[in-house]
Structures are given as C-alpha cells and as structure tokens.
Inverse folding.
C-alpha cells in the first residue's frame, strides 16, 4: 500500500473568486430604504434562506414514534432515547456562499454552526456525517474547493472532538452556466444527558434577561444581508475561531445543565437582529417582544452589528443573569447582558448607539412565516421553465 502513488489532481483557486473575496464590502453604499433598519430586517426574514421552512417539514412525519422532544423548526431536533432519560440532538448545516468565497473557512463554519445548533438545544456535539456537493473535480478550480473544504472540515472536527462517522459525495453538479455553489452539508449529532435539558430557541418568559455570548464584529462578507439586500456575494466570510467556538459551546452547556437557561439560539444567517427576531416569532403560538440596547464596538458599523454574521455567538434568555455571566467568564467567553424579553404588544426594539431598529412583532412574524407559502402559491412564470444559475458579483 505504501508504494501506491498518491492521487493528487491539479488544484488552483479561480482568480475571479479570489478577486471577489478581496472586495471591500464595507464600501457598499446602503440603499435608501435601509435608513429604516426594520425594513432590512423584514426583507431578511422573508428570504427563503431564513424564512420558516414549516411549509416543507409539515408535509412529513416528525413524531418519530412519539419519541420527539423538540421537532423541526428550531436550532436542532431532539429525540428521546427510549427507555432512558437521554436524548439525541440532530442538525444539518451548510452555507455555500462561505465555501465559494473561502473553501477552508467555509468548511470550518459548516461544522461549527452545526455544533452550535446542537449545543443550543442542550446536546453535546459528538460526531458528524456529511454530504459534499461540488462541481466537476476534474477542473482544477473545483478540486481546489473540494480539497480545501475537506481540510477545513477536518480542522473543525479535530478542534471540536467530533469524528466523521460517514458521509457521501455528490460531484459533477454543473450546468452550462457553471457549477453549483460548493456546499458541504454537515449532519451533526449530539448527546443530551437528560431530556430535561432539551432547550428551545424561542423565548419563554416575559421579564427574562437576554444575554449575548460572543463578540459582534465588522464582518459582512458572504452574508445573507449582502446577498438579499444588495445582490452581492463578495468579501471574506467571517472568521471561524475554533477555540472560541469550543469555549462558547462549553459555557452554554454548563449553563443549560445547571438549569439557568430558558432559551438558547445561535447567531448565523442574518446576524444578531435576525436571531433575536427568531427568538420572538419562530413559535407561532406565542410571540414576544424585546428591548435591547447595545454599544457598537470600535470600527463596527450599525449595519454590521445588526446583520453581520460573526461566529461563535449565542443569544440566550435567563432569570439568573449573574450566574450565566460568571460561567461565561470562567470559560473565557465574552458575554453581555443586552436587554429584556417583553410582551409582543410592547414591540421589537434594538438600539445600537444612536441607531434604533423598531418593528411590529406581527409584521415580523408574517414576513417570516408567510414567505415560503406565498412563493409556493405563486403561479409559475414562463421564465421559471429554464432557471439560470446566477452567482452575484461574478
């Protein structure tokens, strides 16, 4: 076996993609409508990447023979291990834009985000499987994406102690317009030590304190904000610090297992404003409002604070804020008490320095829950017969 030649096809990055990654996305001028950040939030909540997927998952059985503890629609599903108090948290994640712009960083983020979602549901990340969706690897530019993404996945799995138990590869996904976005999808499983620790993403109690784990940053590259609002896929994706990811996960699990957390949700697509909105409206049976006040960090714009996708962040609600902050400090995790859960009638309010995002909770809910049903009910257009693959900014 040692005498076998190594299979090493030619690999090189597409210079056009490298040029996109180098774009200064901070220089992109805001649209006039963005003077009201609530308008931006409504557009993002109606984006198919963010909007509720209930239209799809309600068509399938998710009760798993009555063992379902938390069903689809949150950070991760949780299933009871029959005959025990244990549970399994299950999640799939992947972001093709990140991998397109920086395959290694995008591979890391795919694993880290899946791990955050499992942890936010009360599970300790244990292992992954994967589905690697790429174009024709005989082309050096595609093989570069494939090899770099796998390297990033390996780095994240090593740092988070989540071995790869299996997976599959889907290659040659191309049309005359080009290859699909390189999209490794990560399936993560985690162990919930006691199903009483299963935690939902949505707020539960008026008056609870809202705590942010992790730092906001100026990073807007590869974001849903740029793609949805400006039609641009460019800039470097957010940095994935794997030690910070592990520390945030450990701190959150200690808080959950200590009975200190009412809800927990990771920050990902759409950034902090979207994460907070989902905590208020994702449970259609009961909505909440929030009153949040933040001070932006140096050189971080208000739109990056609202909609940037900095990694290693969680939003959680608690009635034991001092204990939560103490645990976060013990793990070296930046944590900040940022506001309070209020009634839906009180509205949705986030203040960043002198910039305020104020929105009606019902309007946010309608944008989030009705987007995909409205799209699916729309009559087919003649142009829909031959869809084009468009990579914004190329």
């Amino acid at each position: 076996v040692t005498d076998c030649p190594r299979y090493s096809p030619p690999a090189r990055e597409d210079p056009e993609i490298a040029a996109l990654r180098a774009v200064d996305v901070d220089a992109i001028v805001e649209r006039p409508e963005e003077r009201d950040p609530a308008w931006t939030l409504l557009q993002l909540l109606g984006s198919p990447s963010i909007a509720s997927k209930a239209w799809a998952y309600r068509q399938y059985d998710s009760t798993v023979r009555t063992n379902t503890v938390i069903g689809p629609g949150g950070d991760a599903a949780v299933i009871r291990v029959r005959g025990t108090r244990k549970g399994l948290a299950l999640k799939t994640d992947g972001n093709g834009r990140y991998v397109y712009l920086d395959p290694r960083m995008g591979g890391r983020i795919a694993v880290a985000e899946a791990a955050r979602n499992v942890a936010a549901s009360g599970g300790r990340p244990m292992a992954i499987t994967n589905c690697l969706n790429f174009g024709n690897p005989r082309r050096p530019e595609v093989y570069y994406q494939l090899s770099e993404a796998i390297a990033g996945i390996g780095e994240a799995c090593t740092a988070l102690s989540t071995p790869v138990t299996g997976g599959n590869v889907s290659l040659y996904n191309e049309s005359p317009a080009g290859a699909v976005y390189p999209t490794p999808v990560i399936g993560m499983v985690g162990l919930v030590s006691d199903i009483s620790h299963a935690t939902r993403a949505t707020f539960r109690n008026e008056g609870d304190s809202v705590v942010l784990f992790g730092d906001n940053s100026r990073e807007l590259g590869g974001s849903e904000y740029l793609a949805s609002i400006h039609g641009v896929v460019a800039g470097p994706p957010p940095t994935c610090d794997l030690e910070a990811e592990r520390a945030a996960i450990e701190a959150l699990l200690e808080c959950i297992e200590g009975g200190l957390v009412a809800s927990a949700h990771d920050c990902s697509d759409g950034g902090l404003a979207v994460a907070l909105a989902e905590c208020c409206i994702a449970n259609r049976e009961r909505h909440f409002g929030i009153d949040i006040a933040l001070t932006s960090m140096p050189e971080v714009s208000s739109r990056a604070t609202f909609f940037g996708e900095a990694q290693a962040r969680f939003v959680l609600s608690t009635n034991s804020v001092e204990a939560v902050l103490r645990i976060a400090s013990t793990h070296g995790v930046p944590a900040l008490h940022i506001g309070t859960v209020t009634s839906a009638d009180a509205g949705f309010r986030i203040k960043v320095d002198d910039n305020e995002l104020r929105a009606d909770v019902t309007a946010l809910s309608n944008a989030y829950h009705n987007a995909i049903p409205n799209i699916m009910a729309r009559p087919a257009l003649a142009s829909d017969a031959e869809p084009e693959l468009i990579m914004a900014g190329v």
Confidence is low (pLDDT under 50) at residues 385-394.
